[in-house]
Amino acid sequence: MEGKQIVIVEDEATSRLAMEKALKKKNYNVISFEDSLKALDYIKTNPTFIDLVITDFRMPGMNGMELIKEVTSLESDISIILVTAFGSIESAVEAMKLGAEDYLAKPIDMFELRKRVEKIINNKKLKREVDNLKQRIDKFYSFSNIIGKSPQMKNLFEKVLMVAPTDTTVLITGESGTGKELIANAIHQNSLRKNNIFLPINCAAIPAEILESELFGHEKGAFTGAVNQKVGKFELASNGTLFLDEIGEMSLDLQAKLLRIIEQKEFMRVGGNKLIKVKTRIIAATNQNLEELVKSGKFREDLYFRLKVVHLKIPPLRERKGDIPLLVNHFLKKFGELHGKPEISISPEALKVLEHYRWPGNVRELQNLVESLVIFSNDDIITAENIPDEIISQSDFKTEIKKPHIIENSDNILIKLGEPLEEIEKKVILKTLRMFNGNKTHTAKALKIGLRTLHRKLKEYGEEQ
Question: Which of 276, 295, 315 is the last residue of a domain?
């Protein structure tokens, strides 16, 4: 069983060894001390490596109560079990008040000891998992996950921090792939609502006839198929934040109902006759020009002005090219760890190609490309020749990359009996390279050899400078 250490402090050898043996049988990492002062020195030196201290009550030098006081004074997450031969309620109560999590009376039942220890260790493990999950969620939706040091992004971050503590509606605009939902969630995570739900809904992904029920819910029998009452997204997100992505796709009828909710903080379920009060904060987003939609009569002007009390514009990636190296390195680290290639990096030439590409799909396109490059890389360094031709051809940075053309259509090679193995190997390598249009990454992957090995072989053949 993996985990931190369990420290046993017991001056009586028979009891100490019995507890140590019983816990080691369950594969716990156990260390024991006869001297309480030496034990305390060890605990103070290694607090982060210890899960649990099991200490006797009566010991020379320092008794169990004094040891509990010392351990609980440390800034650590160490649990304590007190062992006492006297079994008095008073000592147990005092120990619990001082910070002990449990106590056992001598003579110790080893089955009971293992049971108590297992409960404490499992609870600590569960707590760590919950804490780690919360940290990952907070990190994912905090500014640490929104990469950018350009003036445009710094200005955007400042506005987010100013608007987050308020309850005002926010309109976020930007091209597809710029990270509108990340900004919306960053607003939520930095608001007083952060402990309540953040609920995203894509208005373009749900048919108009279904969207109303999704947003407002419906009563039983409201329409064919409504066999039960349904709670809508506005109710679910009350006291939290509802993120309405692609708001420009919402029908005019639903726009009118949305306006009422924003202004009155109330609505009725589909098929209902009861007003429901909500305290839902609304953040909307779109990649469309709402002003043009208003002019063409496809979007209500009053809703437009009500939504854009605060208007945040996310710049496209081509307008903040200085952030591209930061983003590339962030994604390399992220996907390198995810796909078991933590040391992977990118060559300066390859990075230049990416910096001078226009990125019509913005950050999402860059993220997807980097993950693909990581997956198909057979080397620790991603080079310019690993980058797809369509990216290279549209990049303003011109680089000399050899891309041999296919000169044969056959998947076969001719091998003569008695032909040296080195010549056969050369034929296979060069034929495979041509088959993949000169893409060395795909060639190495197909041949199941390392990219460095392929480069070395090609250099031997005079096919690489």
Answer: 315
Domain with residue 97: its CATH number is 3.40.50.2300
For 283-311, what is each residue's pLDDT tens digit?
A: 999 999 999 999 999 999 999 999 999 99
Distances (CA, A) of 295 to 285, 300, 334, 366, 390: 19, 9, 43, 34, 37
Task: Tell which phi-psi region holds residue 419, choosing left (phi > 0), alpha (psi between -120 and 50) or beta.
Answer: beta
Identify whether residues 168 and 264 lie together within a single domain. yes
Q: Hey, how many other C-beta atoms are within 10 angstroms of the C-beta on 151?
A: 11
Clarify whether residues 164 and 310 are in a common domain.
yes
**C-alpha Rg value of the chain to the nearest Å:** 32
pLDDT per residue as tens digits for the range 127-143: 776 665 555 444 444 56
**324 and 443 housed in the same domain:** no
Q: Which of 315, 333, 363 is the last residue of a domain?
A: 315
Number of domains in the chain: 4
Q: What are phi and psi of 124, to 5 degrees?
A: -70, -40
- pLDDT value at residue 460: 84
* CA dist list (Å): 464 to 176, 218, 361, 393, 404: 40, 68, 34, 22, 11
242: exposed, middle or buried (C-beta count within 10 Å: 0-12, 13-18, 19+)? buried
Q: Which range marks the domain in which residue 44 is found?
A: 5-136
Q: Are residues 161 and 278 in the same domain?
A: yes
pTM, entire model: 0.58
Residues above pLDDT 70, as percent of the chain: 90
Residue 223 pLDDT grade (very low, low, confident, very high; cuts 50, 70, 90): confident
Angstrom distance (rounded) from CA 86 to CA 422: 82
